[in-house]
Amino acid sequence: MRAEVLHIGEVARRTGLSVHALRLYERAGLLAGEVRRDETGRRVYSTWDVEWLGNCVKFRASGMPLATISRLARLVREGSGNEAERLEVLREHRRHVIAQLAQLQDCLDLIDGKVAAYERHLAADGTGEPWQQPMPDAVTPAP
């Protein structure tokens, strides 16, 4: 069975990266495999390359710097024997993502509070200020 050979346009379509971004990723050393060329000099990629690029897209979306992705790609290219270093790169980024999630949860809590305040305000026909909690009715002491 012959491995699937993909050209840059198809890889761009499958990954959501532009052709320009794919070339930039290649120059920055982000690919885990060597970029091959066909007999006409056009770049050719494998399905494994597309899988790796999909990982890179997720790494970037999670805030991983290009330099870190490049480091990880270099380690993968070097082959076995450096798995502990790869693991530490991923663990460090995991810590970063967990911190981001905590910060985003804090932001979401703030937004949820504001949404609830405006919903209460509008449910009360928009009277009063949205940020003022209704005062409890005054209780008069019994004579």
UniProtKB/TrEMBL annotation:
Residues 5-75 form the HTH merR-type domain. PROSITE patterns: HTH_MERR_1, HTH_MERR_2. Keywords: DNA-binding. InterPro entries: DNA-bd_dom_put_sf, MerR-type_HTH_dom, MerR_fam. It comes from the Bacteria. Gene3D superfamilies: 1.10.1660.10. It holds the Pfam family MerR_1. GO terms for molecular function: DNA binding; DNA-binding transcription factor activity. Signal peptide: none annotated. This is DNA-binding transcriptional regulator, MerR family.
